[in-house]
Amino acid sequence: MPIELTLLGVAVLLGAVHIFAAAHVRTKQYGIEWNMGARDAELPPPNPIVGRLQRAQSNYFETFPLFAVALLAAVVAGRLGWKTELGAHLFVWARVVYLPIYAAGIPKLRTAIFGVSFVGFLLVLSAMFFG
After folding, report:
1. What is the pLDDT of residue 126?
2. CA 21, 68, 17 angle in degrees (round to 5)?
3. pLDDT(12) > 80
4. CA-to-CA separations, 80 to 12, 31, 117, in angstroms, rounded
5. Half-sphere exposure in the Cβ direction for 26 (13 Å, CA)
6. What mean pLDDT comes out for the span 19-40?
7. Which end of the chain is more exposed for a tag (fewer CB within 10 A), N or C?
8. Which residues of 7-25 are buried (b: 16+ CB within 10 A; e: fewer)?
9. For residues 121 and 70, is the Cβ–Cβ distance under 8 A?
10. pLDDT in the model for residue 15
11. Are residues 118 and 60 in contact, defined by beta-carbon separation less than 8 angstroms?
């Protein structure tokens, strides 16, 4: 199996980590009864960590599908090479680092790390179109 597909699998697992991290801190703030209930009641604003993890999750699920489609298109088109390998590594590992940095509330570093992941996505996209 190409390394790109292994990294895609890691990216899928990272998506699950985003879901569970955000859910865990939300449940910690609002309680298990809220989590298991209909969630119809008005809630107080989320704590900073809850808000950060929700925003990190939202950001991940905005970018991950684009990366996944570009990578799978490169695989199907037979355009794997240094661009897809480096791009997939940059995207995945930068996104792994992004989550705790965002949770810690370090804005400029978070933005730089996002930029690294975006460069990875652009490399994969470039390979998809141009080989």
Report:
1. 97
2. 10
3. yes
4. 20, 47, 18
5. 18
6. 90
7. N
8. bbebbeebbeebeebbeeb
9. yes
10. 98
11. no
pLDDT at position 41 = 77
Q: Directed axis angle between helix 107-130 and helix 48-76, to 10°?
A: 10
Taking Cα atoms as reference points, which of 56, 62, 43, 46 lies closest to residue 104? 56
- What's at 120, amino acid-wise? G
Q: 101-129: per-residue pLDDT in tens?
A: 999 999 999 999 999 999 999 999 999 99
pLDDT, position 59: 98
In this prediction the pTM is 0.93
Encoded amino acid at 9, one letter: G
Whole-angstrom distance, CA of residue 95 vs CA of residue 35: 27
- Secondary structure (DSSP) of 58-125: HHHHHHHHHHHHHHHHHHHTT--SHHHHHHHHHHHHHHHHHHHHHHHT-HHHHHHHHHHHHHHHHHHH
User: What are 57's two structure tokens?
Assistant: 């999750």
